[in-house]
Every structure is written in structure tokens, then in C-alpha cells.
Fold ABC transporter ATP-binding protein.
Amino acid sequence: MSVNVLEAQHLYFSYPDGTIVLRDLSVAIERGKKTAILGANGTGKSTFLLHLIGTLKPSKGKIFFNQQEVQYSRTSLLALRSKVGFVFQDPDTQLFSASVWQEVSFGPLNLGWTEEKVKEMVTKALRITDTTHLKDRPTHSLSYGQKKLISIADVLAMEPEVIILDEPTASLDPQYTIHILNLLNEINKRGTTVIMATHDVDMAYAWADSIMIMKDGIIIKKGNPVEVFLDDELLNQSSLTKPFVLDIFNKLQLNGYLPEGITIPRSRQQLFEIIGRYAKNSRL
């Protein structure tokens, strides 16, 4: 099986008003990885994600899923979306059923599964998202954070190979943000490829295996988080800031508080451990 689960080749896309959004975009997304896509507003992140599930069709170029070119017939798109799930930024765009159970069961029912299989998968999705207690609640009565979780359960109930999320932590309080990220880590550990678009550089730096930077409708950089965020010229060009943890670490090294050559931290906890290790022998 190919290492790449999704691939875009030379994508071009313009909206009906003539606005060019994607310009010769080519990139491969590795299977089983956590990938974060960053870029300023208007760079084409959401548009690109919608191409990956066939909601938008490029004016030129191709999308491949598991090395098979995406086709745009109804049957082909249904098959693609049973394997590549999408969670919209605004959960009210996604949720439409009267109750949580009806909402999460909608996708599996459309796949033609047996009643027993549907019940099994809905129960599993609610358990994974820690929302079983909400199963009989009207969807309109849920909090924003609960709606986000049910949107993810919607997708999980269909056992996708890939889950794509557009700004999954936007407008969430810190508690729900941590909950969502822990959930996405758990989903990834179960073997699902996770892709998200986000503006949060601190979260992306700590969470992702791979970072993609978009600007003017193309991917201008792809790499591991440390490699990407150490590129000051790239960050300036992309209107992005350096993650807090990396910025503090760099300044401590620059001022001689930490030695060169040590492992660069990805999280606050890792940074605190490094500071604790070297504080006794420095001016900290």
C-alpha cells in the first residue's frame, strides 16, 4: 500500500466571480500521519480541503485517493466520502437531524449497513468522543463544543481512513480545545490519518507530524514542525508567527541559558523539563 493516502497534482481552481484560489497546487499527504495546514486568511486552505472530498472540482489538475484518481460521479463521490470524512468549521453547517442518535446514525444508514452494524458503529463513535450521555438530546440544544464533538462522531461512525477538519478548535474554550486534540490523537493512534486546517501555530507545532504552509493558493513549504518553524524567512513570507515554545527556547539558547545541540521541545511540558534540567548550572 502506498505511503501516500491523498495526493493533489497541479490543482487550479477559480470561483465563479473569477477569484483564483488554487494555482498549480501539488502535494502528497502521508498515510497515518497528523498533518496541519497553516496560512493566512484567503490563502485557499478551506478550498483545498473541499477538493480532497470532491465537494469542489478543480478546473485543472487531479486528486488521488489511495492512488486512484477521484471521479465526480455520484457513486464515486459517495464511495470517497465513506472513506474520507470531513468536519466543517461551523458544526451547524453539518448537523441537521433532530437528535444526536439520529444525527450520528445518518451516515452509516446511507452506507446500507445492517441495523446491528449501524447501532454498533454509532455506539462506538459516541463512546470514543465521550458523548454517549448526549445520545437522546436534540442537536439544537447542544453547546458549541458539544456540537463539535458530535460532528466528529458523525464522521467516525463511518470508519473513515482519513478525517479532515477545518479549524476544529476555532471558538472553543481551552477545556474543549484540549478535549478535541486528545480525541484527534486517539483517533490517529487507531490508524486514521488526520488532516486539519488551522490558524493556531502553537497548537499545530505541538500536535502535528507534518506541517504544510499555504500562500496564494499553493503549498510553499512542507516538513516536520521544527524544520518549518525554524525558517524565519518562511514565517515572515506567510504572515505567521513562531510558536511560543520554540521562541522561548531559541531566546534561552541565544542568551546562553541552554546549550546548543539539545533536543528542541515541541510542547510546554518538554520546555519546562529542559529548563529544569539545566537551570541549576545556568544563570536562570
User: Anything to note?
Assistant: The first strand starts at residue 4 and ends at 14.
